[in-house]
Automatic annotation (TrEMBL):
The keyword Transit peptide does not apply. It comes from the Bacteria. Residues 31-51 are annotated as: Disordered. The keyword Repressor does not apply. The lineage of its organism: Bacteria, Bacillati, Actinomycetota, Actinomycetes, Micrococcales. Residues 1-30 form the signal peptide. Keywords: Signal. This is Exo-alpha-sialidase.
């Protein structure tokens, strides 16, 4: 079962009353030049005076080589600069999204009303950077909110933790507390943020150990083989360059962060993409300075 789409397009919601458009205006696809700086000098979130397009929820922002991707309630988008997003592939609710080491896009969530995908979607994958998607497994069974690629396999959480070595066959796993976020490192170590603290597994979820952190983490990401970045319940960003043994905490709270990804730009600099409310932010200095992308 494969969904296909034509050229990247803008999502357009028409015929909505003004009140509905106001509710939906958390993150809009805006024409160039509509952004105004906020009181801190950051670019403001895009606004669209036409009220044509709105994204109601952003689940994750991820870098794929030279492209920033935004997984949303309305589908997958790529950041096109100047506060603009361009739709990639068909619209569906990407509750979970990850990019595997081989470049495959993995996702889970809910189909669009006119889709022939099951509800919930289960695990779907794209091998053409999001333009078409194929149902892989667990269709009609799982809506994975936490999802991470583990080599050719997947670890994911719906109401229980599961591991698949091949994205088709699944094994149940036990974990001391439900994970809010999952992140697999280059060496296969999986991190899980939970109400009991940050947990780590080096054996594909068979056993878990607690990783000490300065604050309770909500979301976590690997930026490199030993570099971990996290966002805490207080909105503080923090980084460990020794696989969690020691941590450096950013200078200020950046707000309510729901998702985070990180990329090493060099030996020292780390690009962090944050989902804060209905916006995507970028910082290279643990939040001392932030840029609102969309």
């Amino acid at each position: 079962m494969t969904l296909s789409t034509g050229l990247p397009r803008r999502l357009v919601l028409t015929g909505l009353p003004a009140a509905a458009l106001a509710v939906l205006s958390g993150c809009t696809i805006a024409p160039p030049g509509s952004e105004q700086p906020d009181q801190q000098g950051n670019p403001a979130a895009p606004t669209n005076p036409r009220g044509d397009v709105a994204i109601t929820h952003i689940h994750r922002a991820v870098r794929d080589r030279d492209t920033i991707l935004v997984a949303t309630h309305q589908g997958l988008f790529r950041f096109a600069g100047a506060g603009q997003l361009v739709a990639v592939g068909p619209p569906f609710d990407l509750m979970g999204f990850a990019i595997a080491p081989d470049g495959t896009y993995l996702a889970s969530g809910h189909p669009a009303p006119d889709s022939d995908l099951p509800q919930p979607i289960g695990l779907i994958q794209s091998t053409d950077r999001g333009h078409t998607w194929t149902l892989r497994s667990r269709g009609g069974q799982s809506d994975f909110h936490a999802l991470t690629a583990l080599g050719p396999g997947v670890m994911a959480f719906d109401d229980a933790l599961h591991f698949s070595p091949d994205r088709v066959d699944w094994q149940d796993r036990q974990i001391p507390a439900p994970p809010r976020d999952l992140a697999a490192g280059p060496d296969g170590t999986v991190l899980a943020t939970t109400e009991r603290g940050l947990l780590a597994s080096a054996d594909r979820g068979l056993t878990w150990q607690t990783v000490s952190t300065p604050q309770l983490l909500v979301t976590v990401a690997w930026a490199g083989p030993r570099t971990i970045v996290g966002a805490s319940t207080t909105g503080a960003l923090m980084v460990s360059r020794d696989a969690g043994a020691t941590w450096k905490v950013g200078p200020r709270s950046v707000g309510d962060v729901s998702a985070i990804t990180a990329t090493l730009l060099g030996a020292e600099q780390i690009e962090i993409l944050l989902v804060v409310g209905t916006q995507v932010w970028r910082t290279n200095d643990l939040g001392a300075q932030t840029q609102i992308l969309v």
